[in-house]
Specification:
With about 625 residues, the chain is an alpha/beta fold. The chain folds into 3 domains: about 5-250, Glutamine Phosphoribosylpyrophosphate, subunit 1, domain 1, CATH 3.60.20; about 250-455, Rossmann fold; about 455-605, 3-Layer(aba) Sandwich (Rossmann fold), CATH 3.40.50.10490. The chain has 20 helices and 27 strands. The strands form 5 sheets. The protein has an 8-stranded antiparallel β-sheet with strand order 3-2-4-1-10-9-11-15, covered by helices on one side. Strands 5-6-7-8-12-13-14 form a 7-stranded antiparallel β-sheet. A hairpin with a 4-residue loop joins strand 2 and strand 3 (about 40-50). Helix 7 runs antiparallel to helix 15 (about 435-455) and helix 16 packs across helix 20. The longest helix has 22 residues, at about 435-455.
Length: about 625
C-alpha cells in the first residue's frame, strides 16, 4: 500500500519523482524518500512524514541533479514509520538501491541466512532484506542485475512491486511485480515507473501494465525487455493508451479531493450508465454480461466478495438482486472468504468489487473462486487493473480517479453498475415486466439530477456538523436498502474524523445498542418514505423517549419525522431500491464537514491508504 515512482531518460528526474509522489500520497503518507543518480554517485534522501517534508529536507541534504531516480511514499508494514525504515534502501555495498510496495513473508528466514553470511541491517524492513538478497545473488552467481533480481524473487514469498538500480548501471532500472500494481509510462527515449499512471499522465499517454509474475529491464540505450520471473520467458510489451487526463487528478478549486469527488457524483453516475442504459430503446447493453449471458441466466446463486466501502455496496446489491432477480445472494468479506473453505459451485456467479482493482484480499478471493470453477465478474474503477485482467468478465464504473482515501463516488458508481446488472438479469429472466423494467430505467436516468439536488443541502449539513463535531460517539440506523448506507455512513465518520460510530439495522437497536442512548448520543436515522417508514417512525420514538439527539435523513416534504427529529436533512423521492444513491450523499457531507471542523486531514486520514495491496 505504498506508492513508487521512477524515471529514466533525458529530463531531470527529481521534479518528476516529487510531483509523482505527491500524486501517489493517497497510497501511503507516513514517510517518503528519493534516490537520484547523476552518473557519479547516488544521492539519497528520506524522512518520516509527508512528501512535503521530503522536499524540505532535500533542499539542504542532497544534490537533486540526475536523469535517473526512484522515489517512494510509504504506508508502514514492517517497521515503524521513521527515517531509517523509510525507502529507498541501500544494499550493504551501497551499489544497489531499491523501493518496494508489498510484503516479503519469508523475510525473517532470508535475513537470518544473510546475517550468517556477514550482512548487516540498519532498518526493520523486509525491503532491506530483499535488496541484500539481490546483491548476494549477483555476487555469488556472477550475473547481471536483471538476472539477480529474477533469481532473488524466485526465492521470496509474498507480494511486491519493486524498482531497483545499480550505480554500476546508470542507464537501467529493473522493475517487477507480484500482487502489487506497476505501470511503465513509455515516452520518447524515456520511461516512467509508478504504482499507477497518475504520476506520468502529463508526459505520456502510453503505458504498459505489468502482469503478475512479470519483470522488466527498463533502459534508454536498448529496447525495454519484459520477461516472466518464474521461467525467464520473454513477453511482448503491450502498450495501451491511458483513459486519464491531468484535470481529473487535480482539485479543481475544491479545498479537498474528497469534497470534489462528492460533488462529482452526478456526473460519475451518469458516466457509469452512459452507453449501457439505453432508456429510449428500453434496453441495457453491457458487453461483459452480453458475452456471458448464459452464466447469469443459469446462475443458482450470486456471491459478492469485497472489502470496506465496496462490501457495503455489495450489501446494497444483495437487497437489489433478491428483490428484482429473486436469486439468493451472499455478500462475503473477501479477507474472510479466502481463508475459509467456502462452498462454491460451477453455476455460481461471483462478483468481485474493488475501486482500485488491486485489493489483495479480493484478488485472492477471485482466484479461489476460479479454482473452484465459478464464473467471476469484476466490478472496478481502474482500467487495466489486476482485477479487470483476472476476472472472466467485468464492468468498469467510470467514476474517474478517486484520490481521497475515503471512498465516495466509488460507492455510488458501484451501486449503479450493480443495479444495471440486476435489472438486466431480472428482465432477461422474466422476473419483472417490460413496464416495470422501463420504469426502473427512467428513474435511474433521473438519479444524477436528484443527486445534484441532494448536494444543494451542503450548507445546511455543515451547520448540523458544527452542532455535533465534539460528539465522542454516533449511531447510524437504517432499514432495508438503507441499512448498508447506515454502515457506510458510520465508516465514513470513523475514517476521516476518528469519531467512534456504528451502523445498525434500526430494529436491532433495541437488542443492545439502545443501552447507549442518552442526551449525549447523536443518532442519525435514514427515514425515507419508501420502505418500512412506519417502523422507522417507531424506532425514532424509542430514541426520542430516551433523550437521544436525532438527525434524520428524510424524503423532501416529510412532516411526520420532522416533528420528531432535532435536525432534518432532505433528499428527493425515488424508488426504494435506488434510495441508497441519494441517502448516502448527506452522510458523506456530514462526515466531511465534521472532519474539517475538527482540523483533520480529510484526504489522508491517519493509518489508512487508498489501495490495500497487502493482507
Amino acid at each position: 500500500m505504498c506508492g513508487i515512482v521512477g524515471y529514466i531518460g533525458k529530463r531531470d528526474a527529481y521534479p518528476i519523482i516529487i510531483k509523482g509522489l505527491q500524486r501517489l500520497e493517497y497510497r501511503g503518507y507516513d514517510s517518503a524518500g528519493v534516490a537520484l543518480y547523476n552518473d557519479n554517485e547516488i544521492h539519497l534522501c528520506k524522512t518520516k512524514g509527508k512528501v512535503s517534508d521530503l522536499k524540505e529536507k532535500a533542499k539542504t541534504d542532497i544534490s537533486t541533479e540526475g536523469k535517473l531516480g526512484i522515489g517512494h511514499t510509504r504506508w508502514a508494514t514492517h517497521g515503524v514509520p521513521n527515517d531509517v525504515n523509510s525507502h529507498p534502501h541501500y544494499s550493504n555495498s551501497g551499489d544497489l538501491v531499491i523501493i518496494h510496495n508489498g510484503i516479503i513473508e519469508n523475510y525473517e528466514s532470508i535475513k537470518k541466512e544473510l546475517k550468517n553470511r556477514g550482512y548487516t541491517f540498519k532498518s526493520d524492513t523486509d525491503t532491506e532484506v530483499l535488496v541484500n538478497l539481490i546483491e548476494d545473488v549477483q555476487k555469488n552467481e556472477d550475473v547481471k542485475l536483471g538476472k539477480a533480481v529474477q533469481i532473488a524473487l524466485n526465492q521470496t514469498v509474498g507480494a511486491y512491486a519493486i524498482a531497483v538500480f545499480s550505480r554500476k548501471k546508470p542507464k537501467e532500472i529493473i522493475v517487477a511485480r507480484l500482487g502489487s500494481p506497476l505501470a511503465i509510462g513509455v515516452g520518447e527515449d524515456e520511461y516512467f515507473i509508478a504504482s499507477d499512471a497518475s504520476p506520468f499522465i502529463e508526459y505520456t499517454s502510453n503505458a504498459i501494465y505489468l502482469e503478475d509474475g512479470e519483470m522488466a529491464v527498463v533502459r534508454t540505450h536498448k529496447p525495454l525487455k519484459i520477461l516472466k520471473i518464474k521461467d525467464d520467458s520473454l513477453v511482448a510489451p503491450y502498450i495501451q493508451e491511458l483513459q486519464l487526463n491531468l484535470e481529473q487528478i487535480e482539485k479543481g478549486g475544491y479545498e479537498h479531493f474528497m469534497l470534489k469527488e462528492i460533488f462529482e457524483q452526478p456526473q460519475a453516475i451518469k458516466d457509469t450508465f452512459r452507453g449501457r442504459m439505453l432508456e429510449k430503446e428500453g434496453m441495457i447493453k453491457m458487453a461483459g454480461m452480453d458475452e456471458h449471458m448464459n452464466k447469469f441466466l443459469n446462475a443458482k446463486r450470486i456471491v459478492i466478495v469485497a472489502c470496506g466501502t465496496s462490501w457495503h455496496a455489495g450489501l446494497v446489491a444483495e437487497y437489489i438482486f433478491e428483490e428484482l432477480v429473486r436469486l439468493p445472494v451472499e455478500v462475503e468479506y473477501a479477507s474472510e472468504f479466502r481463508y475459509r473453505n467456502p462452498v462454491l459451485e460451477k453455476d455460481d456467479v461471483v462478483i468481485a468489487i474493488s475501486q482500485s482493482g488491486e485489493t489483495a484480499d479480493t484478488m485472492a478471493a477471485m482466484k479461489l473462486a476460479k479454482e473452484n470453477g465459478a464464473f467471476v465478474f469484476g466490478v472496478c474503477n481502474v482500467v487495466g487493473s489486476s482485477i479487470s485482467r483476472e476476472a472472466d468478465a467485468g464492468a468498469y464504473t467510470h467514476a474517474g480517479p478517486e484520490i481521497g482515501v475515503a471512498s465516495t463516488k466509488a460507492f455510488t458508481t458501484q451501486i449503479t453498475v450493480l443495479t444495471l446488472i440486476a435489472l438486466k438479469m431480472a428482465y432477461e429472466k422474466g422476473k419483472i415486466s417490460k413496464s416495470d423494467f422501463h420504469m426502473h430505467l427512467q428513474e435511474l436516468d433521473r438519479i444524477p439530477e436528484k443527486v445534484e439536488k441532494a448536494l444543494k443541502y451542503n450548507d445546511h449539513i455543515e451547520k448540523v456538523a458544527d452542532k455535533f463535531k465534539d460528539a465522542p460517539n454516533f449511531l447510524y440506523l437504517g432499514r432495508g436498502f438503507n441499512f448498508p448506507v447506515a454502515l457506510e455512513g458510520a465508516l465514513k465518520l470513523k475514517e476521516i474524523s476518528y469519531i467512534h460510530a456504528e451502523g445498525y439495522p434500526a430494529a436491532e437497536m433495541k437488542h443492545g445498542p439502545i443501552a447507549l442512548i442518552d442526551e449525549q448520543m447523536p443518532v442519525l436515522v435514514i427515514a425515507t418514505r419508501k420502505g418500512h417508514y412506519e417502523k422507522i417512525i417507531s424506532n425514532i420514538q424509542e430514541i426520542k423517549s430516551r433523550k437521544g439527539k436525532i438527525i434524520a435523513v428524510v424524503t423532501e416534504g416529510d412532516e411526520q419525522v420532522k416533528d420528531l427529529a432535532d435536525y432534518v436533512i432532505e433528499v428527493p423521492e425515488t424508488m426504494d431500491s435506488m434510495s441508497p444513491l441519494l441517502t448516502t450523499i448527506p452522510l458523506q457531507l456530514l462526515s466531511y464537514h465534521i472532519a474539517v471542523l475538527l482540523g483533520k486531514n480529510v484526504d489522508q486520514p491517519r493509518n489508512l491508504a487508498k489501495a490495500v495491496t497487502v493482507e
